[in-house]
C-alpha cells in the first residue's frame, strides 16, 4: 500500500465530521420494537421461501409489488403495513401475526395461577410431619392478595397459626 493510500485512510479515520453512530443508536432505540418484529418477519419469510422453493422475484409477482420491496422485507428494513402483511400471508400461505378481536376491557382474560384452597381450620402449632396428609409443596411463601392469603415457609421450623375463635 502506498503512502498516499495510507494517508487517505488515516484522514477518513480522524475526520472532523461528527460520528453518526450516536444518532443511529438513538434511532434504533426509538424504533427497536418494530425493527425486532420486522427481523422476525424477515426470518419467517425467508424460511417460507426456502420451504416452498420460491425466489424473491416469485414472491414479488404473487404480492404484486416490486422486487425491491421484497428485498427490503427480507432484510428486515421495511416497516410493514397491515396490507403488506396480508399480501405476504396470502402469497406464502403462512400466518405472520395474530390480531386479537375486539373485546371490552372488562372481558379481556388475564393469565392467572389458580390456588386450590384447603378446607381445614388450623388451630394448633404445626410441624412439617403434621403436614404429611396435606398436598402442599415443600416451599410456601406468604403472599397477600385481594381475596386470599397464601402461606409460604421453608418448613424448617414450626409454622404458628393464630387460634381461631
TrEMBL record:
Gene3D superfamilies: lambda repressor-like DNA-binding domains (1.10.260.40)
Domain of life of the organism encoding this protein: Bacteria
InterPro entries linked to this entry: Cro/C1-type_HTH, Lambda_DNA-bd_dom_sf
Protein name: HTH cro/C1-type domain-containing protein
Domain HTH cro/C1-type, first and last residues per copy: 45-99
One GO MF term: DNA binding
